Amino acid sequence: MEQIEYDALEEDESYVPFWQCKQYAARHTPEKAKDDIKVHKLAEDSDAGEVKIEEEESDVSWEMEELQISSQDLPKKISHSARVHTLNLRRNLNQLENIWKEKILINEKIRGELKACRLRIEKLEKERDSVAEEIKAEEEAGNIAAVFRLHGTYRRVVTELHNEEDIESTITLMQQENEYELWQVDTEQVKFEGLRDQVQKEEGEYNKQRIEQAEQRVQKEQLAILQAQHRHKRELHKEVEDLEERELRHRKAVEAAQKNHEKAVQFLKETMSRVHQKEAEEEVKTRENMEKRMQAILSLKNSIAANRENLRVRQAQNKVKAAEAKKQEMREKEAVLAEGGNVIQHLYHQKRLQEFEKQKHDLEEQQKLRKVEIVRRILQEEAYMKKQKKQISNDTSKSLDETQRVSKPRSKALQYVEEAFREKPDLESKPKKWRSPSLDEGSLFGDLSTELREERTHEKKMEEDEEEQNMFDQPEFTGLWEQGYEQYEEITSEFDSKPVGGTKMEKEILAATLDKLRNGIIQKQVAAGHEFKGCPFYSKPSVIHFKDFEVGKAYKKRVILTNASYGINYCRLMGISEDLKDFVRIHFNPPGQLCTGMSCEMMVTFKPMINEDLKGEVMLSAQTGRFSIPLKCTIKKCSLAVDKEFIDFGTHVIGETILRTITLTNQGALGTKFQLQTPTDVEAMRLTTAKSSPGRVASFDSIGAISEDTTRCSSVVPRASRKMEMKTDSRTTENLGPVEPSSSEAGIETENVKELESPPGEKTVEIKLGEVTKGEIGPSSTVKLQIIFTPLIPGEVEAEFEITFDNPDCKSIHLRARGAALDLPVWVSKPNIDLRICMYDRLYQDSIVFQNRGKTALHLKFEVCKELKLHMDVLPKIGYINAQASFSIQLKFLPRQSLPEDAGKYFDKETGVLEAPLTVLIVGQVLYFTKPIQVTVHAIVTSSNLEITPAEVDFGYCTIYEVVTSTIQITNRSILPQEFGFVGIPEFIEVQPNDGFGTLLPLESLQMDIIFKAQKAKEYKMDLTCKTAINRQFKVSCKAIGVHPPLALSHSLIRFAATALNDMSTAILYVINSHTSRNYFAYDVPRIGKGDVAPVGPTFFEFLIPEGSPIDIMPSVGSVLPGEKCLVRVCFRPTLSEQSIKEEAVRIQQKTLEARAVPRKESIKETEVPSKKEKREPKSEKKSAKKSPGRTSPKSTGHTSPPKHSVKANKSDIFTACLLKPDDIKPDSDVYFAAQTASFQRFSGQFERHIVPCFVASSAVSTDPKKSTKLNYSPYNTLYLELCCPSVAPPIIIISDNGRNNISFGEVAVGQRVLKKVEIQNISQAPLEVGFSILSPLGPFVLLNAVGILEPGNSAPLLISFSPQESKRFYENLEVRSSKAVLRLNITGQGLAPSVVCSVQDGVINMGYVLSNDSVTTTFKLQNVSAVALQYSIKLDSLSVTRHEEQQKRPPFLGSGREASSLVGTQNFSGLSVFSVSPVEGILDPGITQDFTVTFSPDHESLYYSDCLRVELFNKEIAHVIHLKGASRNHMMFVEGGDPLDVSVESLSITPTYEDSTKDQEETAKLVLLKLQCVQTQNTITPAVREIYIGSVRTSQTSGRKSVEFTLENLPLLNHNGFSAEPVKGMVEPGQRKAISVSWVPPAGFDLKYPATATAQLTVKGDIIEKYKIICSALVISS
């Protein structure tokens, strides 16, 4: 992730988006046409191409290395089992949450039903009261009928009221049960809070892993794309070279083809003639072949008929022969019967002889055929070799050597075949003997090397294939075409020319082959890459053992050999050991090749001649090496053994006799004599005396074993202080009796039984021998020997015996016996009584069993030590135990609290261990029975107390709307686990966990939560009882004060759903004021404990939100009137803290600087060494580098020495990276927002719990509004609102503009449309269906595209346009909605009205007069005075699309005095526009002035050229309209002014023709009308003045005259009528104009009612002379 973030920060340097790589790859797909063009271009400039390719290769390799480095950090993969476990936990948590929601819904429904039920009860109570009042009223009125009717109604109402009350109680009970279940569910949820956090963490890790895997896949794809680009460039470069080579080859091929064509043309005619000739010959041959085939078919038909006849004859002959054979067989049967022989045996022998002869004959035929075939093939090969010798004449020596090498094995094979045939007559004359192959037989094949064998096997396979093919190719009958075969040549003597031994090389090959055969032919077997090692064949039996053989007899054994190798193998007998050759014969037929798992048999025959053990082995050989089977031959022997060499009699009472039997077994096949006696060199008896004590008894009892003749009855009691088990005999063994010898003990000599009592004067012997002491034991038989133990003296005794044999090969067997004698007949099965762990004041019992070994009844007395008489007792205290019987007593142990003081030395106070003695006295014992029996009672005494801290719990003040929890600690002071439980708990208290039940381990402490919920305002005092499993009670006193606050919250716990960062979740609750009455008898009034009741009136509340929490409560302060409620909205907006984002930004900057510092260090190290070398280079290299500027040397480009300050800069970067602080990061910087986006991607989730206190203050209703009311505030009335706020990472984030969600369009001109792209990405692990909020349809913002489904890890662009229509600031929110969260985008923009100033003030540009086909230009300016750039376009109405529609309308002069709608006038005949403007469109930056040029270029004479120029902004708004005017003349002079006499539309005006232009100018004088109006006031008359202008057109065309002259004639007439004009004459320079002013004053006597008229002539001289008739008309008007 860190590497990816670093790449994102330096996008301009190294990051290439995935879609750009795809487009790049798509643009560079190989297409034939494009590649050809590129190839030609590259071929023209190959040197530059190579340089570019090298540079691109370096860039690509650098990018590939960077991508590979970034993809090295692989994420730790989460296992499938962990993922399944997380999913199961999530499912269980969701189920628990669903159950909780369901319980809440049910609770709300029950509350609604309960509320409705209470309303019905109130209604029925009111109805009951009203009916009661009506009854009273009617009774007073005396209306009996109404009273009875009302009584019925009253009873009905009361019945319904009772029913409703029952329903209310039922619903209340249901509500309590449901609330209890809801509380249990809440408790379970609290338990699983840790699991929920763990699940969220694991899900976050899994999401992070998915994101990292997706990014790694993108990096791999980028790497693949870069590699593909590199490969494509290589291929393209290679294609250029291939094309050049192809073109060169093509040119050469064309030249060669032309030469070949010329040659081919020459030989074509000759070839055609030859072809025709061959065709004619082939036709002749085909005809001859057809005739031959016809004859062959006829001969075939005849031969078929002849063969049929032959077959019939042969069948008849066979039948005759069969009849004769049957007759002959009958005769032979009769002859055999006559001789008295067996007919069936005779026939069987005859049949076998015939089969043998037939097989012999077939074998001879096959050998002949094979010999012929071998000879034929050898001859063919020799003929082939001769042909090769003729063809290869240059290298004769090599060819001869090769032919000799090839012919040698063939000649050897031929010799072997001939020798076999030569020996055949000798073999036939001698009887055939079959024997197994040996080493000598294998030498026959030694002549052929392994290479020859491979060639023979290969040839054999080829022959078989050819035979199979020829089986179907050969016809049934031979035809005529097979008669021309060549007969085989006879084998000459040249094949026998070489000796049998062969050449020197063949002898060396033969010697090497024989060595291999002697050492075993080893060929490795390899299967599936494993080489076989080990024995190739498995033998059954693995060892051939001839056991207990007798000389002169023959023994046989069959051995099965199984192939255990990896493949096909063979087995061959190599021989046996030298010691066994005279006695062992092996019959083994080699089976040939055996597959894996197949087996073969081998028979081994053994005939001993000497009576000795023999050992050896059978040696075999396989393909993988030699192996052997061990072979042993053993004679008859004696194998003697006893079942036990040590006899332990155990512990017995004095005077008893115990018998033990041992078994002597002979497992061999040879019998012998034995004798059981005491050894002479060892003392006969060893007596060990010791004093009789209870410790000695215990030691003997621990060692004693129970014999086969006695019954074991012992009990085992485990103790901590003992390390072994106590075993004792339960009864004495039986007396010694006579022993009868078994059938296998025939021939054993018996002696008289010795007396048990030794004579006086001799040493006492307690361990003696039985009756049988010597005898003979046969093969595979057993003998039983007896040893007798008679204890006389207390103590332990041992004896040794020895069994000797007559057979010198048999070793003596030594026996040892041991026994112990006791003087006490009574013993205890459990001398140590372990009561384990006991508690004080608890009764423990156990039984003690006593055993009597004696043969008389005994009187026992049991005593407890005086220190423990208060704590321990025995029942009964006196008892009798019968002979050889048992007696049990009951031990009772009740430890009291005074045990540590009473027990004294028997009790350890530190460990609590008790070891108490119990004495057993035998009353009336005689002689040495004087010591008592000691029994020890062991116990560990411990306390049963539970310690509860604290013993008193004070909950303090608790409102009825909240739950107060206090923690207590329970400690088990016992060393035993104890079960406990809190019982009798009141309904307003709850103990958790496990409802107050549990088990405490020894010395364990457990914390329990006591949960208190006040039901009403009062003081609570109670005791909680904790009981243990032994019925002990421990109490905890609790007290609290219940508070009923004046206000209540509808919800005291709000669980927000998992909310994404920068998203918002909202919950609604109500603050309720239900306090309407101070009557505490009828209602639960708000008060603290038993204090004063809160006043009725408006109650104020204030929520105090914790500082820095993402919680918002609206309203946080307010008041609620009695009986009303106030809605409060709680909002949860999780965000990342500013400090964490700044720390992440510092971390990113440090990594960036460190990553930049590493390559700088490497470059500095690399450049230090070359910089030193460059100083030593001669100046010639520098000059050569200057001469070749096209290619720069690597020293000058790749290894430039860095400046000195670069090292300092590198160190300064690292120093600044170390000094970066979070406070230096500005919240509006790009680094801050990039760090915020990175934190979003790495955010794994967070759970917060906030408790918001709500302070309550109440006030009484004041009658006087002027008086201020006092607020009754108490901290005990404070309500608490608990908020559970889980926050998760946002599923959708913004990745463009460093993750900013504020989209600012800035200042945009009105009417302009600006687009912005916002890139969003799905960082969750599931596809999201994305929706969007609706922007204002009348607003300037529009979302142009929408995204449907966004896959995990994918990104999508959003296009938003801003087109303001007003000059103001716009603000709007766009919500990107998904199923998990909402992403809010803040869109802002400023609309500005565009303002452009034009230099044309009156909106008209008059171009003046221009000669036809000439042009004139003028300029005007536009300045952008707004703060935004403006896009303008200049449009002319004459070029508008709607111009033709305007021309179809009625001309304006035909209308009723309305103005013209179009300003377009006369246009050029050529179709080109008269007016043109440049530039036509562009962008005006703020404050910039643009010059525009207008060109007027008419092509004919007209006075009404005009057009309309419009300046449009953004192709919508028209900023300025300019009227363009101009006039054109064919000549250089013009007259303007006066009133119009014609229309402005050119189509309706008089167009002069060519004939009219040739007329006299006098006849065609032009008219100019001047209308003058004189204004008359009361006393004076203002003269009227008008002007006409004479001008000269400035032109670049050459003409004779450059100035224009004018003359005004007929002036007297004008003056007579009151008109005056001046100047009368004048001259006008080109480009200038002069005015003639005409004024009129009414002359004397002029009738003001009528107008005055006069005419004058104006002559204008320029390039031509023109005359104008000026008509002056004057009129007097009043003011």
TrEMBL record:
<dbReference type="GO" id="GO:0005737">
    <property type="term" value="C:cytoplasm"/>
</dbReference>
<protein>
    <submittedName>
        <fullName>Cilia- and flagella-associated protein 74 isoform X1</fullName>
    </submittedName>
</protein>
<feature type="compositionally biased region" description="Basic and acidic residues">
    <location>
        <begin position="1159"/>
        <end position="1183"/>
    </location>
</feature>
<feature type="domain" description="CFAP74 third Ig-like">
    <location>
        <begin position="826"/>
        <end position="942"/>
    </location>
</feature>
<feature type="domain" description="CFAP74 fourth Ig-like">
    <location>
        <begin position="949"/>
        <end position="1042"/>
    </location>
</feature>
<feature type="compositionally biased region" description="Polar residues">
    <location>
        <begin position="1190"/>
        <end position="1200"/>
    </location>
</feature>
<dbReference type="InterPro" id="IPR013783">
    <property type="entry name" value="Ig-like_fold"/>
</dbReference>
<dbReference type="InterPro" id="IPR056310">
    <property type="entry name" value="Ig-CFAP74_4th"/>
</dbReference>
<keyword id="KW-0966">Cell projection</keyword>
<feature type="region of interest" description="Disordered">
    <location>
        <begin position="719"/>
        <end position="759"/>
    </location>
</feature>
<dbReference type="Pfam" id="PF24770">
    <property type="entry name" value="Ig-CFAP74_2"/>
</dbReference>
<dbReference type="Pfam" id="PF22544">
    <property type="entry name" value="HYDIN_VesB_CFA65-like_Ig"/>
</dbReference>
<dbReference type="Pfam" id="PF24778">
    <property type="entry name" value="Ig-CFAP74_3rd"/>
</dbReference>
<feature type="compositionally biased region" description="Basic and acidic residues">
    <location>
        <begin position="422"/>
        <end position="431"/>
    </location>
</feature>
<dbReference type="InterPro" id="IPR056307">
    <property type="entry name" value="Ig-CFAP74_3rd"/>
</dbReference>
<feature type="region of interest" description="Disordered">
    <location>
        <begin position="1159"/>
        <end position="1208"/>
    </location>
</feature>
<feature type="coiled-coil region">
    <location>
        <begin position="107"/>
        <end position="141"/>
    </location>
</feature>
<dbReference type="GO" id="GO:0005929">
    <property type="term" value="C:cilium"/>
</dbReference>
<dbReference type="Pfam" id="PF24798">
    <property type="entry name" value="Ig-CFAP74_4th"/>
</dbReference>
<feature type="domain" description="HYDIN/VesB/CFA65-like Ig-like">
    <location>
        <begin position="1302"/>
        <end position="1381"/>
    </location>
</feature>
<keyword id="KW-0969">Cilium</keyword>
<keyword id="KW-0963">Cytoplasm</keyword>
<dbReference type="Pfam" id="PF24771">
    <property type="entry name" value="Ig_CFAP74_1st"/>
</dbReference>
<dbReference type="InterPro" id="IPR053879">
    <property type="entry name" value="HYDIN_VesB_CFA65-like_Ig"/>
</dbReference>
<feature type="domain" description="CFAP74 second Ig-like">
    <location>
        <begin position="640"/>
        <end position="824"/>
    </location>
</feature>
<feature type="region of interest" description="Disordered">
    <location>
        <begin position="422"/>
        <end position="471"/>
    </location>
</feature>
<keyword id="KW-0282">Flagellum</keyword>
<feature type="region of interest" description="Disordered">
    <location>
        <begin position="388"/>
        <end position="409"/>
    </location>
</feature>
<feature type="coiled-coil region">
    <location>
        <begin position="192"/>
        <end position="260"/>
    </location>
</feature>
<feature type="compositionally biased region" description="Basic and acidic residues">
    <location>
        <begin position="450"/>
        <end position="463"/>
    </location>
</feature>
<feature type="compositionally biased region" description="Basic and acidic residues">
    <location>
        <begin position="722"/>
        <end position="732"/>
    </location>
</feature>
<feature type="coiled-coil region">
    <location>
        <begin position="306"/>
        <end position="373"/>
    </location>
</feature>
<dbReference type="InterPro" id="IPR056306">
    <property type="entry name" value="Ig-CFAP74_2nd"/>
</dbReference>
<keyword id="KW-0175">Coiled coil</keyword>
